[in-house]
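Hello, quick one for you while I still have it in my head. Could you read through the record and tell me how the tokens relate to the sequence? No rush at all, and the record is pasted right below.
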Amino acid sequence: MEKELTRVLQVYDSIEEGLAFLKTSLFSKNYTNECIESLRVVNLLGMLETKGAFELWKKAFGLIWVKEPLLKQELLKIFHKIYVDASEPEMVVSELIDLALKLDFHQKLSFEEILRQLLVQEKEFRYGEKTEKYTSSENQAAIDFRNNPGNRKKNQFRDEFM
């Protein structure tokens, strides 16, 4: 019994070391495939409810701002699988609200963008129409928002990932 307990503790220590490595490889700027695989591993560790995996998953929301489309698509696919496909339809909104309550300010900005992109994809899938990124009135609203001095911190965060 003591040997098994020791082995379990060693596995948990290994997972914690792995999470530290995943944190660096998840945000590697030059290796898209490494980032995608790291994102998948974080998802698996989250399914196992590994300590620290949820915190890393929340940080991964910032990947929505990167320019690499493969990485963004993988993030959207995993997010959809976790929060939309795996839930009963009546529970989706409840789970998304619970998640939003656990996010900090910067994570909420990324969370909103993830939801927006998922809605655009769903509209394109259902209605077969290509959606413009923003309408002209939305563009003006975004410009007004960006020029508001109170929103500079949000813009700094977004620009960091774009």
About this structure: The chain has a mean pLDDT of 78. The helical segments are 2-26, 32-47, 53-60, 69-85, 89-101, 105-127, 136-147, 152-161.
